[in-house]
Structure formats: C-alpha cells, structure tokens
Write a structure and sequence with these properties.
Number of helices: 2
Strand order of the largest sheet: 1-2
Number of strands: 4
Distance between the termini: 40 Å
Structural class: alpha+beta
Shape: elongated
Number of domains: 1
CATH architecture: Ribbon
CATH class: Mainly Beta
Radius of gyration: 21 Å
CATH topology: Pemi-like Protein 1, Chain: D
Length: 81
C-alpha cells in the first residue's frame, strides 16, 4: 500500500502517479486511463493503446471516396497489421 498526498492545482486536487506504475504500464503524459469509483474506493486502470489493422481501416472508408490507383496493393508501412 502507498500513501499519497493530494495537492491543489487550480480548482482541482491532484496526486502523482508513481514512476514504477508508469513504467510497468508504458504510460506517459497524454496516456488515457480508466477510473472506477465505488463508494470510497477509486481504482485506476491503464488502458491499452488501440491496435489498428489496415484492412479494418480501409473497410471504414466511405463508398465513393476517391482512391489512388494501386493503393490496395501497397504494403503496410506503419504499425498497422
């Protein structure tokens, strides 16, 4: 168990998140987390970054959207799979 001190920041109270938790969950400034509040208990859960598949992204393209010839045959170049 760890005891943290709440600090005032503007009109809110903030607490620091331990570096070990950040590293363990690959979190950084701008990362999103889920907060579940049940009575007097607050649970913070790291949310995984979404994984995108190129085929799924292409399937979401609106019909009639202009496409470059040969686009569908191009290999993935980023983190999509």
């Amino acid at each position: 168990m760890m005891r943290l001190t709440l600090r005032k920041a503007g009109g809110s109270l903030v607490m620091t998140i331990p570096k070990a938790f950040l590293e363990q969950n690959s979190l950084h400034e701008g990362s999103q987390v889920e907060v579940l509040i049940t009575g007097k208990r607050m649970t913070i859960k790291a949310t995984p970054r979404p994984r995108y598949r190129l085929a799924d992204l292409m399937a979401e393209m609106p019909n009639g959207f202009p496409r470059v010839e040969g686009w569908d045959e191009m290999p993935p170049v980023g983190l999509e799979s």
